[in-house]
Structure formats: C-alpha cells, structure tokens
Amino acid sequence: MPNIVKGSKQEKMIVVPLRPRRRLFFTFCLLLGVATAAAGGFAYGYYQTMLSQQTAQADRAELVRELGDLRLENTELHRQVAILDRSSVMDQRATVEVQSTIGSLRERVAQLEQDIVYYRQVVSDETEDTGLIISQLDIDATSTPRVYRYKLVLRQQDADGDTFLTGHVNVNLIGRQNEALVILPLREISAEQDQMDIRLRFKYFQNIEGELTLPEGFSPERVQIAGVETAPFEKNIDQDFSWVAEGE
Questions:
Q1: Quick check: 129 and 178 in contact, CB under 8 A?
Q2: pLDDT digits (tens, 9 = 90+) for 184-194
C-alpha cells in the first residue's frame, strides 16, 4: 500500500491495459497522414510551379512576338528615315540648282534688257532723220462758218523709190467747249475720214485732205498728229501744231 501524506491532494489513478499493437497502428496512421499531407503539398506546389512556368512561357512568347514586331517596326522606321534623308538631300540639291538657274536667268534677262535699250537707241538714231515725217499741215477757212479745209502731207524721208512705207496716223483736234477740254478725232468732224487709224502706204508721200466742221461752241487750240511706221522701219512720231487757219 502506498504511502499517503496526510493533508496533500490525492489524484485518482486509472489503470489502462497495455496494447502495443494499437499504439503502433495509431503511430502508423499519424505517419501516413503526415506523408499524405506532405505529398499533397508537394503535388500542389508542383502544380502551381508548372502553372507559373506555363504562364511565364506564354508571357515570354508574347514578349518575344512583340519584340519581333517592334524590331520590324523599327526597321521600317529606319528605312523611312533613310528615304526622307535622301529626299531632303535631293530637295536641297534641287533648290540650290533652281536658285542657281533663276539667278542665271535674271542675269540673262538684265543683259537682254540692256541690249534692247542699246539697239533701240541705235535704231532711233538711225531712223530719226529718215522714214516717216510730217511734211505739211494746212488749214484754210471756207465761206461757210465753222467749216475748214485741211491738208496733211506725210513723206518718206530718204525714199529710194522702190520701198513702200506702211503704217497709220491719228489726227485729233484739241480745244475747249464750255471751258472744258475736248478732244475731237478727225473722223468725227470730217466726212472724208471713217477710221481712227488712217492707213498709210506710199513710196514718196501721201496726202490726207478734206473738210472739217467745228461743233457749236467749240474753240480749237491745236492739232495733234500721232503716226506709226511699221515698214521699212519701225518709227513713231507725235507732234502738236497750233491751230492756225488761213483766210480768217
């Protein structure tokens, strides 16, 4: 009989039969559960790892594809830049050539203008005393008031007798009517003339004559004569004559 100390709390004891096989069974089950859990954890981890690898491979494949596209785009951009560079160089060269051509043309035009001025001066000097000239202008009063006879003689200076002078002449009477300046073409006041440009064609001289009638209230001041010779030379004449009527 065990010793019992008086005054201490005594715990009840349970007597359990010894069963070694059962303990061994529970130990085996415990180890099996741990192993199963470890295997399940390993399988799950392996699955997650494989899934991650597949996702990573898919992402890598997508990145590789995008990288290929970007490389193609970059190559195309480089090609376009090269084309633009060449175009820019060609445009610059073309601009330089055009500017050079324009400069040369301007210099040529300036030279031609100088030549034209020179040749005109030479021709003017040569034809000043030759070709078309106004030889005579006569205005005579008639017995009818405000009606006058006129005679204009145009001559070819230094005529050789074989060459026709051709061209035309305009005759205007300038005066005042009611204090206003008025210009009357000869065709408006003379029945003998029906054209503004009176045709000229002669070897030695040509007479232009007839009668003119002054409008009421018109006071003549001068006669304006403008002639153009087209052959054998090119020459212009422009002269004004005071209104002087014989017989008034």
A1: no
A2: 999 999 999 99
